Amino acid sequence: MKKELRLLTIQDYSCLGRCSLTVALPVISACQIECVGVPSAILSNHTAGFRSWTYLDLKDELLKIVDKWDEYKHHFDAIYTGYLPTNQIDIIKQIFIKFKEKDTVIFVDPCFADYGKMYAGFDKSHIDKMKELIRMSDVILPNLSEACFLSDTPYKENFTLDETLSILDKLSTFGVKKIVLSGLTFLEGKLTSIVYDCKSKHYVLASTPFYPYRFHGTGDLFASSYIALSMRGLDDELVLDTTQKFIDLAIRKTLELGEPNLCYGVNFESALSVLIDAIKGIE
Ligand code: PXL
Q1: What percent of the chain has pLDDT over 70?
Q2: Is 1 part of a structural domain of the chain?
Q3: Strands, E, within the chain: which ranges?
Q4: Ligand 1, atom nearest to 216 Cα
């Protein structure tokens, strides 16, 4: 009998540009998990690649929304945070405490940097606040830039596997169980990701071809897919491999349509079948 699963995710809703909630909701739903999405902010579009945007901060709504649920019994199998303004992190910590039960897994995608630079509107104070959130989590899913900022490692595009493992070792001092690091290029011509078990130091890798484009939103797709498939009980090797294949197909579908407009993200809608097929095996 298939188990019903419910996940709470808190991140922004950027109307245009496929990222955050607009990808988390369909990806997690495709894995047959109820995705309860609470928007931290509403933007006209994301801030990477577009010239300007509107921004409505929903800080004052967050506790109002989740406290309203006190009238009902809500169990969350997982909580997943993505892009968050610095001034909301203390509230998110309260939400973790409110909903964390024995079997609730907390996933944090730090989501504040890419290509060695912090996203527009963030400063270094965000890194310390994010470390506080990470210390309360079970699994973190940084990209290479975020991993460098969080471990005080100077950023470069290419780290060797040994250098990557030493970054992971530093990050494991935050007390998390697992680290899922994406966007690695130590294998030539490949885009590689790694799941690192902080206790055993055991790791698994998955790779797909590397494309010389800076697509937006692929980190959010990666995190949503990894989290949903692992909640469905697939082992890390299969989760990572399927997630890489899902994103690879989304990129190929985008490229098939011609020269991509990178701001709009990737055509993941055409690749959802990869996730649907992966969980068919366990139905
Ligand atoms: O995909 C990361 C992301 C999420 N949300 C917003 C962003 C970005 C990246 O720039 O601007 C609003």
Answers
A1: 99
A2: no
A3: 6-16, 34-45, 55-57, 78-81, 105-108, 113-114, 117-118, 139-140, 178-184, 190-197, 203-209
A4: 1
